[in-house]
User: What shape does this take?
Amino acid sequence: MNKYAVFTGSCLSATAIEYLDQAGLLACVVLPDSDANPDLLQLQQWLEQKQITMLKYNKKDDKPLIMQLDRMGVECGVIYLFRHKIKTTLIQYFQEHLVNIHPSPLPDYRGPQPIYWQLRNGESSTKLTLHKVNEELDCGDIGCEVEIDIHPFETNKCLHQKMAQALPYLVSQFVQTEQSGGAVWRPQEQGASLKAAPQIIHSDLLVDWRQHSAREIANMARAGNTDVACALFQYRQSVFQLLQATPVECNLVGVKAGTVVQLDKNAGLVVKTDDCAVRLDIIGAQQGVFDGYRFALLFSLEPGMELCCGANYESRVI
Amino acid sequence: MDRIDGTNSKTLYDYANPEIDVLLKHSVRTQLESLLKTSISVEQRLVVLQQSFVEAMTLVLSEITAPHTQLVKTFENMYDQAVLSMAVAGLSQEQLTHQYISATGLIMSPYNCKHTIKDIYRIKGYARGLDKAIQGKLKNKPSINVLYPACGPFAPLLLPLLSYYKETQTYKPSQIQVTLVDIQPGAILTLKQLVSDLQLEEYISLIEEADASIFEPENAIDLLVLEAMQHGFTKEGQLSIAKHLVKYLSIDGWMIPQNVSVKGMMVVGETEFNQQWKTQEFSHSSNVANEAQQDRVELGEILKINKSTLLEMQELELEGGIKVIPANQIVLPKGVEDMSKRIFAVYAHIETFAQEEVGQYDSGITHPRPDNSVYIDLKPKDIEHTHFVASSGDTIQFYYQLTGLPGFVPVKL
Assistant: This one.
């Protein structure tokens, strides 16, 4: 029976590793070639305890890894949350038996940040999609997939954990299909209108009160909640994290987007947007994490004030 | 003096030891500490409160101009005492801090409004004007109705004056009947406490929790006191309130202020807002620098507000339900070399009554307000729909927007 090498750098793959291990289908785990981070260290520790063989990927030269895999007789590979684009030599080594699990309904949300962009776009469901690995990232034929609902309050981490819970089911489905004659592979749809999941850049994180709708701001906050991709807004000369926000109704006319329209202990801190308004529920500052009401009182932010004025007059003129 | 004794609830009640919200406690800690240290009785507190109000009015109504430092001290004392009444009123944090934008303007929280009573020259200009207006009205009538909408928690333009009248027995309650209106429940609670503490109940016919822009008084008004505004005649619902309530003035009724003139100017920001004040102790119309005044490029009057202009004002409704009032046109002067370096600013001059006034820089409400969305003879880097770009020589029509955040909207003709 073919055994699998699992390529991953995250504990969120533990459920799949455990399934394969218990099914006697795990050959080894290939770890990424990157600096140590808490998630990777925890994974390594767990693998050590489980006495699972660990191999190291070398992004400059994958030949030593191929030799090790060959020596172990590994012919199949599963990738999940691995940081590197797999080189052609390694793809060729597996001879079409290397699959990647991508947390999105492919062909939508190809790229390194699928979960962030799905939450940011307010998707209500997603998929874990298993596809063949080829030279083009996230573009190989699809073998199987599992649909997952997205709760409207779920954050990036919530959804990652939910995906992790569904992972063994997807892997088991795939393994069983392979064992019973092989999966039916279907090519991915191609096209320019597909939704993308590119790397997040700093400007993606800044709330633009004039451009973003209340729902978009709420989704930005949710997608980046306590993550490096946290939504940010500027007030005076400082930048604050927006960890949670909620759209609220607002019928005021002639009030600029970005203007604070309400401050109340119960109703919270409410800011006008172009379409309605958004309540800033939880705000992160260097001084701590506050609800909108307390933040406003501590940082002297009041209804009538605007949040969008950043640059000074001189810098705004030609 | 009685001793505070935990076993005697009546004795405890007799001492001014209010249970107050943590936020108000934070901002009035000093006053509260001194109050508790000296174990001041309720009776003593009321005496000090009433005295502080009378002293402030005695100074501003006197024909001898009091020194600024003396005024500051007296008004600070009045503020301290008024805040203690607010503390005794027992507002919840919700009532204290709720601030929002309504359909007609910004509704300040009682917590933020409480500072108005320290705005010396606003109160001086209004008190002196009101005093003359009341005097004028009572020459021909046995009693008058005064309406003070959006008066805030302390009704600072009238309660000190009424305290002064009571103390000096200038006018009896049968001669002046005042209606106080505010939309904030916290302001109403405080007003009731303060009126009771000042023992002015007989002067007050009604304290009503209502939106002043739709409030309908039962009796014709002889004097309408209008104050709800911020600098540049922006943000608060002053014009909506005035426009609505002016209809309830009796034929010979007066609005206080009698005239508000809002003017535009182009200034060099550094000269107007910084250099001019570097050597001055405090900002006031009597302290403006001649050099800075001469450096201004005055654009003329944008809007005049008085009883007759208010009655004639026509509202226009734009797409999206935005209501505007056409204001004046101005022509941007040609030949000003440094026009592109200047900032457009709006300022109000308030004539309360009979030459009594609140001049530019006298108060927060008359402080010139720079408007960085207006660009004359230059273009913004990233033009937005809120920017206004014009050139020297252009004619500009101003509109006043009656929305959640009222203010002027310039349009190039």
About this structure: Chain B has 14 helices and 18 strands. Chain B touches chain A at residues 23, 93-94, 97-101, 103, 106-107, 109, 112, 235, 269, 320-322, 343, 372, 375, 378-382, 384, 386, 401, 403-405 (CB under 8 Å). The first strand of chain B starts at residue 99 and ends at 102. The mean pLDDT of chain B is 89.
